[in-house]
UniProtKB/TrEMBL annotation:
It is found in: Membrane. Its main location: membrane. Pfam families: Sugar_tr. It comes from Ancylobacter defluvii. SUPFAM superfamilies: MFS general substrate transporter (SSF103473). The lineage of its organism: Bacteria, Pseudomonadati, Pseudomonadota, Alphaproteobacteria, Hyphomicrobiales. GO terms for cellular component: membrane. Belongs to the major facilitator superfamily. Sugar transporter (TC 2.A.1.1) family. GO terms for molecular function: transmembrane transporter activity. Residues 45-484 form the Major facilitator superfamily (MFS) profile domain. Keywords: Membrane, Transmembrane, Transmembrane helix, Transport. This is MFS transporter. The chain crosses the membrane at residues 45-71, 83-103, 110-128, 134-157, 169-191, 203-222, 339-356, 368-387, 393-418, 430-454, 460-479.
Length: 511
Protein backbone atom coordinates (compact mmCIF):
# COMPACT_ATOMS: atom_id res chain seq x y z
CA UNK A 1 0.00 0.00 0.00
CA UNK A 2 1.44 3.38 -0.98
CA UNK A 3 0.84 6.92 0.21
CA UNK A 4 -1.33 7.93 -2.76
CA UNK A 5 -3.97 5.42 -1.73
CA UNK A 6 -7.14 7.02 -0.47
CA UNK A 7 -9.79 5.55 1.75
CA UNK A 8 -13.10 4.04 0.82
CA UNK A 9 -16.12 5.62 2.46
CA UNK A 10 -19.05 3.85 4.00
CA UNK A 11 -22.52 5.15 3.33
CA UNK A 12 -23.45 7.62 6.04
CA UNK A 13 -21.23 9.25 8.66
CA UNK A 14 -22.07 7.04 11.68
CA UNK A 15 -18.87 5.03 11.54
CA UNK A 16 -17.72 2.67 14.25
CA UNK A 17 -14.40 1.11 15.10
CA UNK A 18 -14.97 -2.08 13.12
CA UNK A 19 -15.86 0.02 10.08
CA UNK A 20 -12.40 1.56 10.18
CA UNK A 21 -10.72 -1.79 10.84
CA UNK A 22 -12.54 -3.34 7.88
CA UNK A 23 -11.95 -0.35 5.60
CA UNK A 24 -9.67 -0.90 2.60
CA UNK A 25 -7.93 1.85 0.59
CA UNK A 26 -8.39 2.90 -3.02
CA UNK A 27 -5.69 4.05 -5.40
CA UNK A 28 -6.07 7.55 -6.82
CA UNK A 29 -7.76 6.16 -9.95
CA UNK A 30 -10.38 4.34 -7.84
CA UNK A 31 -8.87 0.86 -8.10
CA UNK A 32 -9.33 -1.02 -4.81
CA UNK A 33 -6.17 -2.22 -3.09
CA UNK A 34 -8.02 -5.30 -1.85
CA UNK A 35 -7.07 -5.20 1.79
CA UNK A 36 -5.25 -3.07 4.32
CA UNK A 37 -2.25 -4.90 5.81
CA UNK A 38 -2.30 -5.90 9.46
CA UNK A 39 -0.49 -3.38 11.65
CA UNK A 40 2.34 -4.08 14.07
CA UNK A 41 -0.05 -3.63 17.00
CA UNK A 42 -2.61 -6.02 15.56
CA UNK A 43 0.06 -8.69 15.15
CA UNK A 44 1.41 -8.03 18.66
CA UNK A 45 -2.04 -8.58 20.13
CA UNK A 46 -2.44 -11.75 18.10
CA UNK A 47 0.87 -13.28 19.19
CA UNK A 48 0.36 -12.47 22.87
CA UNK A 49 -3.13 -13.99 22.79
CA UNK A 50 -1.85 -17.05 20.92
CA UNK A 51 0.71 -17.80 23.60
CA UNK A 52 -2.03 -17.75 26.22
CA UNK A 53 -3.63 -20.68 24.42
CA UNK A 54 -0.21 -22.34 24.11
CA UNK A 55 0.19 -22.32 27.89
CA UNK A 56 -3.21 -23.96 28.34
CA UNK A 57 -2.30 -26.82 26.04
CA UNK A 58 1.16 -27.10 27.60
CA UNK A 59 0.09 -27.22 31.24
CA UNK A 60 -3.14 -29.19 30.93
CA UNK A 61 -1.85 -31.86 28.56
CA UNK A 62 1.54 -32.13 30.27
CA UNK A 63 -0.41 -33.26 33.30
CA UNK A 64 -1.12 -36.48 31.41
CA UNK A 65 2.58 -37.33 31.56
CA UNK A 66 3.12 -35.95 35.06
CA UNK A 67 0.17 -37.60 36.82
CA UNK A 68 1.68 -41.06 37.41
CA UNK A 69 4.78 -39.49 38.97
CA UNK A 70 2.71 -37.17 41.14
CA UNK A 71 0.58 -40.13 42.24
CA UNK A 72 3.65 -42.00 43.47
CA UNK A 73 5.24 -39.01 45.23
CA UNK A 74 2.07 -38.19 47.16
CA UNK A 75 0.79 -41.80 47.42
CA UNK A 76 -2.53 -40.89 45.83
CA UNK A 77 -5.67 -43.01 45.66
CA UNK A 78 -7.74 -43.40 42.48
CA UNK A 79 -10.10 -40.65 43.67
CA UNK A 80 -7.23 -38.29 44.43
CA UNK A 81 -5.82 -39.10 41.00
CA UNK A 82 -9.10 -37.92 39.49
CA UNK A 83 -9.11 -34.75 41.62
CA UNK A 84 -5.64 -33.79 40.39
CA UNK A 85 -6.67 -34.39 36.79
CA UNK A 86 -9.77 -32.25 37.27
CA UNK A 87 -8.24 -29.44 39.38
CA UNK A 88 -6.93 -27.24 36.57
CA UNK A 89 -10.09 -27.84 34.53
CA UNK A 90 -12.25 -26.83 37.50
CA UNK A 91 -10.14 -23.69 37.74
CA UNK A 92 -10.72 -22.97 34.05
CA UNK A 93 -14.46 -23.30 34.67
CA UNK A 94 -14.38 -20.84 37.58
CA UNK A 95 -11.99 -18.46 35.83
CA UNK A 96 -14.05 -18.31 32.64
CA UNK A 97 -17.25 -17.67 34.57
CA UNK A 98 -16.01 -15.44 37.40
CA UNK A 99 -13.22 -13.51 35.69
CA UNK A 100 -13.99 -13.73 31.98
CA UNK A 101 -17.10 -11.60 32.32
CA UNK A 102 -15.11 -8.90 34.12
CA UNK A 103 -13.67 -7.84 30.77
CA UNK A 104 -17.12 -6.38 30.03
CA UNK A 105 -16.74 -4.15 33.10
CA UNK A 106 -13.02 -3.37 33.45
CA UNK A 107 -11.89 -3.72 29.86
CA UNK A 108 -10.26 -6.36 27.71
CA UNK A 109 -6.65 -5.23 28.26
CA UNK A 110 -6.94 -5.05 32.06
CA UNK A 111 -8.09 -8.66 32.35
CA UNK A 112 -5.66 -9.73 29.62
CA UNK A 113 -2.80 -8.61 31.89
CA UNK A 114 -4.30 -9.72 35.22
CA UNK A 115 -4.89 -13.28 34.06
CA UNK A 116 -1.22 -13.73 33.12
CA UNK A 117 -0.05 -12.39 36.47
CA UNK A 118 -2.31 -14.91 38.22
CA UNK A 119 -0.98 -17.65 35.95
CA UNK A 120 2.63 -16.77 36.76
CA UNK A 121 2.10 -16.79 40.51
CA UNK A 122 0.38 -20.17 40.62
CA UNK A 123 2.77 -21.75 38.12
CA UNK A 124 5.72 -20.99 40.40
CA UNK A 125 3.82 -22.32 43.42
CA UNK A 126 2.81 -25.43 41.48
CA UNK A 127 6.42 -26.38 40.77
CA UNK A 128 7.13 -26.06 44.51
CA UNK A 129 4.02 -27.92 45.76
CA UNK A 130 4.83 -29.44 49.19
CA UNK A 131 1.85 -31.80 49.45
CA UNK A 132 -1.18 -33.21 47.68
CA UNK A 133 -3.71 -30.62 49.01
CA UNK A 134 -1.49 -27.71 47.98
CA UNK A 135 -0.91 -29.29 44.59
CA UNK A 136 -4.67 -29.30 43.99
CA UNK A 137 -4.96 -25.67 45.12
CA UNK A 138 -2.15 -24.51 42.84
CA UNK A 139 -3.44 -26.46 39.84
CA UNK A 140 -6.83 -24.88 40.44
CA UNK A 141 -5.22 -21.41 40.53
CA UNK A 142 -3.43 -22.04 37.24
CA UNK A 143 -6.77 -23.10 35.78
CA UNK A 144 -8.49 -19.91 36.98
CA UNK A 145 -6.01 -17.82 34.99
CA UNK A 146 -6.38 -20.01 31.90
CA UNK A 147 -10.16 -19.84 32.21
CA UNK A 148 -10.13 -16.06 32.19
CA UNK A 149 -8.06 -16.22 29.03
CA UNK A 150 -10.76 -18.14 27.13
CA UNK A 151 -13.08 -15.19 26.51
CA UNK A 152 -10.53 -12.41 26.94
CA UNK A 153 -7.99 -13.61 24.37
CA UNK A 154 -10.73 -14.25 21.80
CA UNK A 155 -12.33 -10.84 22.29
CA UNK A 156 -9.12 -8.85 22.23
CA UNK A 157 -8.26 -10.46 18.88
CA UNK A 158 -11.71 -10.39 17.28
CA UNK A 159 -12.30 -6.75 18.27
CA UNK A 160 -8.97 -5.68 16.75
CA UNK A 161 -8.86 -7.36 13.32
CA UNK A 162 -10.80 -7.23 10.01
CA UNK A 163 -14.07 -9.16 9.89
CA UNK A 164 -13.00 -11.00 6.75
CA UNK A 165 -9.98 -12.51 8.53
CA UNK A 166 -11.48 -12.98 11.99
CA UNK A 167 -12.13 -16.69 11.71
CA UNK A 168 -8.69 -17.73 10.54
CA UNK A 169 -6.82 -15.39 12.89
CA UNK A 170 -8.81 -16.29 16.00
CA UNK A 171 -8.46 -19.98 15.17
CA UNK A 172 -4.82 -19.51 14.29
CA UNK A 173 -4.25 -18.24 17.82
CA UNK A 174 -6.43 -20.99 19.24
CA UNK A 175 -4.31 -23.48 17.34
CA UNK A 176 -1.45 -22.71 19.70
CA UNK A 177 -3.38 -24.84 22.20
CA UNK A 178 -2.58 -27.81 19.97
CA UNK A 179 1.06 -26.74 19.76
CA UNK A 180 1.04 -26.49 23.53
CA UNK A 181 -0.45 -29.98 23.84
CA UNK A 182 2.25 -31.37 21.59
CA UNK A 183 4.91 -29.41 23.47
CA UNK A 184 3.49 -30.70 26.77
CA UNK A 185 3.99 -34.29 25.68
CA UNK A 186 7.41 -33.39 24.28
CA UNK A 187 8.58 -31.58 27.39
CA UNK A 188 7.35 -34.42 29.56
CA UNK A 189 9.27 -36.90 27.44
CA UNK A 190 12.49 -34.85 27.43
CA UNK A 191 12.41 -34.26 31.16
CA UNK A 192 11.80 -37.95 31.88
CA UNK A 193 14.62 -39.03 29.58
CA UNK A 194 17.10 -36.61 31.13
CA UNK A 195 15.83 -36.76 34.70
CA UNK A 196 14.39 -40.25 35.36
CA UNK A 197 13.23 -39.38 38.85
CA UNK A 198 9.88 -38.98 40.61
CA UNK A 199 10.52 -35.23 41.03
CA UNK A 200 10.70 -34.80 37.24
CA UNK A 201 7.10 -33.56 37.16
CA UNK A 202 8.15 -30.37 39.00
CA UNK A 203 10.62 -29.49 36.24
CA UNK A 204 7.93 -30.07 33.65
CA UNK A 205 5.78 -27.30 35.10
CA UNK A 206 8.79 -25.09 35.87
CA UNK A 207 9.77 -25.10 32.19
CA UNK A 208 6.85 -22.75 31.42
CA UNK A 209 7.78 -20.04 33.96
CA UNK A 210 10.24 -17.99 31.88
CA UNK A 211 8.12 -17.95 28.67
CA UNK A 212 5.08 -16.96 30.74
CA UNK A 213 7.01 -14.06 32.27
CA UNK A 214 7.89 -12.71 28.82
CA UNK A 215 4.28 -12.89 27.66
CA UNK A 216 3.10 -11.16 30.85
CA UNK A 217 5.44 -8.22 30.21
CA UNK A 218 4.38 -7.99 26.57
CA UNK A 219 0.69 -7.69 27.44
CA UNK A 220 1.28 -4.37 29.19
CA UNK A 221 2.17 -2.85 25.82
CA UNK A 222 -1.00 -3.31 23.78
CA UNK A 223 -4.02 -1.13 23.10
CA UNK A 224 -7.36 -1.39 24.85
CA UNK A 225 -10.23 -2.72 22.74
CA UNK A 226 -11.64 0.31 20.92
CA UNK A 227 -15.01 -1.41 20.25
CA UNK A 228 -15.35 -2.01 24.01
CA UNK A 229 -14.62 1.66 24.72
CA UNK A 230 -17.10 2.69 22.04
CA UNK A 231 -19.81 0.41 23.46
CA UNK A 232 -19.33 2.16 26.83
CA UNK A 233 -19.66 5.63 25.34
CA UNK A 234 -15.96 6.50 25.79
CA UNK A 235 -15.64 7.87 22.28
CA UNK A 236 -12.48 9.99 22.64
CA UNK A 237 -10.57 7.08 24.17
CA UNK A 238 -11.92 4.76 21.49
CA UNK A 239 -10.58 7.07 18.78
CA UNK A 240 -7.15 7.28 20.40
CA UNK A 241 -6.86 3.50 20.88
CA UNK A 242 -8.15 2.82 17.37
CA UNK A 243 -5.53 5.23 15.97
CA UNK A 244 -2.78 3.36 17.85
CA UNK A 245 -4.15 0.01 16.71
CA UNK A 246 -4.27 1.06 13.03
CA UNK A 247 -1.00 2.99 12.92
CA UNK A 248 0.71 2.30 9.58
CA UNK A 249 3.37 3.86 7.43
CA UNK A 250 2.06 5.39 5.25
CA UNK A 251 -0.88 6.26 7.47
CA UNK A 252 -4.20 4.59 6.75
CA UNK A 253 -6.85 5.51 7.66
CA UNK A 254 -5.67 9.11 7.77
CA UNK A 255 -8.13 10.18 10.45
CA UNK A 256 -10.50 8.31 12.73
CA UNK A 257 -13.70 10.07 13.69
CA UNK A 258 -16.28 7.85 15.38
CA UNK A 259 -20.02 8.40 15.72
CA UNK A 260 -20.79 10.26 18.93
CA UNK A 261 -23.80 8.13 19.81
CA UNK A 262 -24.47 4.45 20.17
CA UNK A 263 -28.22 4.11 20.23
CA UNK A 264 -28.05 0.34 20.09
CA UNK A 265 -25.90 0.14 23.25
CA UNK A 266 -28.02 2.72 25.09
CA UNK A 267 -31.24 0.94 24.18
CA UNK A 268 -30.02 -2.21 25.88
CA UNK A 269 -27.92 -0.72 28.67
CA UNK A 270 -30.07 -2.58 31.21
CA UNK A 271 -29.27 -5.89 29.52
CA UNK A 272 -25.68 -6.20 30.75
CA UNK A 273 -26.17 -8.73 33.57
CA UNK A 274 -25.91 -12.49 33.39
CA UNK A 275 -29.68 -12.75 32.92
CA UNK A 276 -29.28 -11.11 29.50
CA UNK A 277 -27.74 -14.34 28.22
CA UNK A 278 -31.00 -16.21 28.81
CA UNK A 279 -33.45 -13.60 27.52
CA UNK A 280 -35.21 -13.88 24.18
CA UNK A 281 -32.52 -11.88 22.38
CA UNK A 282 -29.59 -14.12 23.35
CA UNK A 283 -31.06 -17.48 24.40
CA UNK A 284 -30.41 -19.18 21.09
CA UNK A 285 -26.84 -17.88 21.02
CA UNK A 286 -26.27 -19.10 24.58
CA UNK A 287 -27.45 -22.62 23.76
CA UNK A 288 -25.35 -22.78 20.58
CA UNK A 289 -22.25 -21.44 22.32
CA UNK A 290 -22.43 -23.56 25.48
CA UNK A 291 -24.10 -26.96 24.96
CA UNK A 292 -21.95 -28.19 22.04
CA UNK A 293 -18.87 -26.95 23.91
CA UNK A 294 -19.89 -29.05 26.92
CA UNK A 295 -20.38 -32.14 24.74
CA UNK A 296 -17.13 -31.55 22.89
CA UNK A 297 -15.09 -31.18 26.10
CA UNK A 298 -16.38 -34.53 27.36
CA UNK A 299 -14.45 -36.23 24.60
CA UNK A 300 -11.56 -33.87 23.95
CA UNK A 301 -10.33 -33.65 27.53
CA UNK A 302 -11.08 -37.26 28.28
CA UNK A 303 -9.02 -38.43 25.33
CA UNK A 304 -6.42 -35.66 25.63
CA UNK A 305 -5.69 -36.04 29.32
CA UNK A 306 -5.67 -39.80 29.38
CA UNK A 307 -4.27 -40.75 25.97
CA UNK A 308 -1.03 -42.02 27.56
CA UNK A 309 -3.01 -44.02 30.12
CA UNK A 310 -5.36 -45.49 27.50
CA UNK A 311 -2.48 -46.38 25.21
CA UNK A 312 -0.55 -48.02 28.03
CA UNK A 313 -3.61 -50.08 29.03
CA UNK A 314 -4.86 -50.88 25.54
CA UNK A 315 -1.45 -51.83 24.18
CA UNK A 316 -0.54 -53.90 27.20
CA UNK A 317 2.14 -51.59 28.60
CA UNK A 318 0.51 -50.60 31.88
CA UNK A 319 2.85 -50.94 34.81
CA UNK A 320 2.18 -54.07 36.73
CA UNK A 321 4.22 -52.89 39.71
CA UNK A 322 2.55 -49.65 40.68
CA UNK A 323 5.30 -48.68 43.08
CA UNK A 324 8.23 -49.67 40.87
CA UNK A 325 9.55 -46.24 39.91
CA UNK A 326 11.69 -47.55 37.06
CA UNK A 327 8.74 -49.33 35.42
CA UNK A 328 6.43 -46.35 35.87
CA UNK A 329 8.88 -43.95 34.23
CA UNK A 330 9.63 -46.41 31.41
CA UNK A 331 5.91 -46.91 30.74
CA UNK A 332 5.25 -43.16 30.74
CA UNK A 333 8.09 -42.52 28.31
CA UNK A 334 6.61 -45.12 25.95
CA UNK A 335 3.08 -43.75 26.35
CA UNK A 336 4.32 -40.17 25.91
CA UNK A 337 5.86 -41.13 22.58
CA UNK A 338 2.54 -42.53 21.36
CA UNK A 339 0.63 -39.54 22.74
CA UNK A 340 2.93 -37.10 20.94
CA UNK A 341 2.29 -38.89 17.63
CA UNK A 342 -1.47 -38.73 18.15
CA UNK A 343 -1.42 -35.13 19.41
CA UNK A 344 0.34 -34.07 16.20
CA UNK A 345 -3.02 -34.56 14.45
CA UNK A 346 -4.41 -31.72 16.59
CA UNK A 347 -2.13 -29.37 14.69
CA UNK A 348 -3.19 -30.76 11.31
CA UNK A 349 -6.84 -30.33 12.35
CA UNK A 350 -6.46 -26.71 13.44
CA UNK A 351 -4.65 -25.89 10.20
CA UNK A 352 -7.68 -27.22 8.36
CA UNK A 353 -9.98 -25.09 10.54
CA UNK A 354 -7.91 -21.96 9.87
CA UNK A 355 -8.03 -22.55 6.11
CA UNK A 356 -11.73 -23.45 5.90
CA UNK A 357 -13.53 -21.49 8.61
CA UNK A 358 -13.87 -18.23 6.64
CA UNK A 359 -14.67 -20.17 3.45
CA UNK A 360 -16.98 -23.00 4.48
CA UNK A 361 -18.41 -21.46 7.65
CA UNK A 362 -18.43 -22.30 11.35
CA UNK A 363 -21.58 -24.41 11.51
CA UNK A 364 -20.82 -26.96 8.74
CA UNK A 365 -17.33 -27.56 10.15
CA UNK A 366 -18.62 -27.98 13.71
CA UNK A 367 -21.36 -30.44 12.74
CA UNK A 368 -19.07 -32.44 10.44
CA UNK A 369 -16.35 -32.44 13.10
CA UNK A 370 -18.65 -33.94 15.71
CA UNK A 371 -19.57 -36.76 13.33
CA UNK A 372 -15.89 -37.36 12.58
CA UNK A 373 -15.09 -37.48 16.31
CA UNK A 374 -17.74 -40.12 16.84
CA UNK A 375 -16.30 -42.16 13.96
CA UNK A 376 -12.81 -42.01 15.44
CA UNK A 377 -14.02 -43.06 18.89
CA UNK A 378 -15.95 -45.98 17.41
CA UNK A 379 -12.85 -47.16 15.55
CA UNK A 380 -10.90 -47.14 18.80
CA UNK A 381 -13.72 -48.97 20.58
CA UNK A 382 -13.88 -51.66 17.88
CA UNK A 383 -10.17 -52.37 18.42
CA UNK A 384 -10.98 -54.51 21.45
CA UNK A 385 -12.53 -57.13 19.16
CA UNK A 386 -9.28 -57.71 17.28
CA UNK A 387 -5.78 -58.94 18.01
CA UNK A 388 -2.55 -57.18 17.11
CA UNK A 389 -1.55 -55.72 14.72
CA UNK A 390 -5.16 -54.79 13.76
CA UNK A 391 -5.95 -53.72 17.32
CA UNK A 392 -3.02 -51.32 17.49
CA UNK A 393 -3.81 -49.93 14.04
CA UNK A 394 -7.46 -49.25 14.96
CA UNK A 395 -6.53 -47.56 18.25
CA UNK A 396 -4.07 -45.20 16.62
CA UNK A 397 -6.31 -44.59 13.60
CA UNK A 398 -9.30 -43.86 15.83
CA UNK A 399 -7.47 -41.47 18.16
CA UNK A 400 -5.73 -39.72 15.27
CA UNK A 401 -9.03 -39.25 13.41
CA UNK A 402 -10.64 -37.98 16.62
CA UNK A 403 -7.89 -35.41 17.20
CA UNK A 404 -7.98 -34.23 13.60
CA UNK A 405 -11.78 -33.88 13.46
CA UNK A 406 -12.15 -32.26 16.88
CA UNK A 407 -9.74 -29.45 15.98
CA UNK A 408 -11.16 -29.09 12.49
CA UNK A 409 -14.64 -28.90 13.97
CA UNK A 410 -16.00 -28.58 17.51
CA UNK A 411 -12.86 -27.81 19.52
CA UNK A 412 -12.07 -24.88 17.23
CA UNK A 413 -15.54 -23.76 16.17
CA UNK A 414 -17.15 -23.72 19.64
CA UNK A 415 -14.39 -21.38 20.78
CA UNK A 416 -14.82 -19.18 17.71
CA UNK A 417 -18.61 -19.01 17.84
CA UNK A 418 -18.73 -18.19 21.56
CA UNK A 419 -16.93 -14.90 20.93
CA UNK A 420 -19.05 -13.94 17.93
CA UNK A 421 -22.72 -14.68 18.63
CA UNK A 422 -23.18 -12.19 21.51
CA UNK A 423 -23.44 -8.37 21.34
CA UNK A 424 -20.43 -6.33 22.52
CA UNK A 425 -21.86 -5.26 25.88
CA UNK A 426 -22.27 -8.89 27.06
CA UNK A 427 -19.73 -10.60 24.81
CA UNK A 428 -17.31 -11.27 27.65
CA UNK A 429 -20.02 -12.77 29.83
CA UNK A 430 -21.43 -14.84 26.98
CA UNK A 431 -18.06 -16.23 25.92
CA UNK A 432 -17.11 -16.77 29.57
CA UNK A 433 -20.32 -18.63 30.34
CA UNK A 434 -19.92 -20.84 27.27
CA UNK A 435 -16.33 -21.68 28.21
CA UNK A 436 -17.33 -22.40 31.81
CA UNK A 437 -20.24 -24.59 30.75
CA UNK A 438 -17.92 -26.46 28.42
CA UNK A 439 -15.43 -27.00 31.22
CA UNK A 440 -18.11 -28.65 33.33
CA UNK A 441 -17.83 -31.45 30.80
CA UNK A 442 -14.05 -31.37 31.02
CA UNK A 443 -14.08 -31.51 34.82
CA UNK A 444 -16.57 -34.37 34.89
CA UNK A 445 -14.48 -36.29 32.38
CA UNK A 446 -11.17 -35.67 34.14
CA UNK A 447 -12.59 -36.73 37.51
CA UNK A 448 -14.69 -39.69 36.37
CA UNK A 449 -12.53 -40.99 33.52
CA UNK A 450 -10.01 -42.97 35.61
CA UNK A 451 -12.86 -44.35 37.74
CA UNK A 452 -15.01 -45.33 34.72
CA UNK A 453 -11.96 -46.71 32.95
CA UNK A 454 -11.50 -49.13 35.84
CA UNK A 455 -15.22 -49.88 36.33
CA UNK A 456 -16.63 -50.30 32.81
CA UNK A 457 -13.50 -50.55 30.68
CA UNK A 458 -12.16 -48.68 27.69
CA UNK A 459 -14.64 -50.01 25.13
CA UNK A 460 -17.89 -48.89 26.74
CA UNK A 461 -16.35 -45.58 27.73
CA UNK A 462 -15.47 -44.86 24.11
CA UNK A 463 -18.96 -45.88 22.97
CA UNK A 464 -20.44 -43.37 25.40
CA UNK A 465 -18.20 -40.56 24.17
CA UNK A 466 -19.13 -41.39 20.57
CA UNK A 467 -22.79 -40.90 21.52
CA UNK A 468 -22.14 -37.48 23.06
CA UNK A 469 -20.32 -36.43 19.88
CA UNK A 470 -23.33 -37.30 17.73
CA UNK A 471 -25.56 -35.37 20.13
CA UNK A 472 -23.23 -32.39 19.68
CA UNK A 473 -23.75 -32.48 15.92
CA UNK A 474 -27.52 -32.51 16.40
CA UNK A 475 -27.55 -29.54 18.81
CA UNK A 476 -25.22 -27.56 16.55
CA UNK A 477 -27.52 -27.98 13.56
CA UNK A 478 -30.71 -27.31 15.51
CA UNK A 479 -29.52 -23.99 16.99
CA UNK A 480 -27.18 -22.96 14.17
CA UNK A 481 -26.11 -19.32 13.78
CA UNK A 482 -23.54 -18.70 11.05
CA UNK A 483 -21.19 -15.78 11.84
CA UNK A 484 -18.76 -16.10 8.94
CA UNK A 485 -17.46 -12.67 7.91
CA UNK A 486 -20.08 -10.52 9.65
CA UNK A 487 -19.30 -7.12 11.21
CA UNK A 488 -19.78 -7.77 14.92
CA UNK A 489 -20.36 -4.10 15.71
CA UNK A 490 -23.48 -4.09 13.53
CA UNK A 491 -24.69 -7.67 13.34
CA UNK A 492 -26.62 -7.52 16.60
CA UNK A 493 -28.60 -4.48 15.50
CA UNK A 494 -29.97 -6.21 12.42
CA UNK A 495 -29.88 -9.95 11.82
CA UNK A 496 -29.37 -10.79 15.48
CA UNK A 497 -32.14 -8.47 16.69
CA UNK A 498 -34.61 -10.28 14.42
CA UNK A 499 -33.75 -13.56 16.18
CA UNK A 500 -31.56 -14.35 13.21
CA UNK A 501 -34.40 -15.32 10.91
CA UNK A 502 -31.88 -16.40 8.31
CA UNK A 503 -29.67 -18.16 10.88
CA UNK A 504 -29.44 -21.36 8.90
CA UNK A 505 -27.77 -19.67 5.96
CA UNK A 506 -26.70 -16.15 6.85
CA UNK A 507 -24.16 -15.05 4.31
CA UNK A 508 -21.14 -12.86 4.50
CA UNK A 509 -22.14 -9.25 5.09
CA UNK A 510 -20.22 -6.57 3.30
CA UNK A 511 -17.77 -5.04 5.75
Amino acid sequence: MESEASGTQLAGSAKRVQDYIDETPLWADGTPVGHAPMTTMQWRIWWLAAFGKFFEGLVVFMTAVALPLIAVEFDMSATQHGVVGAASLAGILVGALALGGLSDTFGRKFMFVVEMIIFMIFLVLLALSPSYPWLVVFLFGVGVALGCDYPTAHLIISESIPSSARGRLVLGAFGFQALGALAGSGVGYMVLVNLPDISAWRWMYASAILPAALVTIGRFYITESAPWLFAHGRFDEAEREAAKLLKRDPAYPHRIKLARSNRHARRHVSETGWSALFGARNRRATILASVPWFLQDLGTYGIGLFTPTILAAALGHAASQAHDVTDIIANQILAAEGAALIDALLIVGIVGAVVLSDRVGRIPLQALGFVGCATGLLLAAFSTHYADPVRTALIFAGFMLFNFMTNLGPNAQTYLLAGEVFPTHVRGKGAGFAAAFGKIGAVLTAFLFPILLAEIGTTYLLYGLAGTSLLGAAVTWRFRIETRGINLDRAHEHAFDADLDAAAGIGREAA
